[in-house]
Write a structure and sequence with these properties.
Layout lengths: L1 H8 L3 E8 L2 E11 L2 E9 L4 H15 L5 E2 L5 H5 L7 H10 L16 H4 L6
Parallel strand pairs: 3-4
Antiparallel strand pairs: 1-2, 2-3
């Protein structure tokens, strides 16, 4: 826990939360280092609340020009949302080649949702 608090204070750990009627019902947290975004964990107290948080993270990432999110695990849940496995060598190459000094303002804007609607998915 102390490590994530330190990462948060350094501006590297972030949470995406889903709220309903003033109650926290789901979300996720992630670590962002430059252009590399590592999804760490998801939770839901209400059906699909974590899926909404992940959709918001994808919308934010697209708005910010991030091209991929490391989900870390191959689960049916993440696969249903479009996650795919990749060879370790490709993963390491992506991490190695990603810009490191990028700073972002981690503020979600309603316009970010448009990046889910207008995005063309390649086959």
């Amino acid at each position: 826990m102390e490590a994530y608090i330190a990462l948060h204070k350094a501006g590297l750990a972030h949470s995406v939360e889903t709220w309903m009627d003033g109650q926290l019902v789901g979300g996720l947290y992630c670590v962002s280092i430059g252009d590399t975004l590592f999804g760490e964990s998801m939770f839901a107290h209400t059906t699909d609340a974590s899926k909404i948080a992940l959709a918001a993270l994808v919308a934010f990432a697209r708005a910010q020009g991030l091209t991929w999110i490391d989900c870390q695990q191959n689960t049916k849940h993440l696969a249903s949302l479009g996650a795919k496995e990749m060879p370790r060598s490709d993963f390491l190459r992506l991490v190695r080649e990603a810009p490191k000094g990028v700073q972002r303002t981690w503020q979600f804007e309603a316009s970010h949702w448009n990046h889910l609607i207008t995005r063309k998915v390649s086959p």
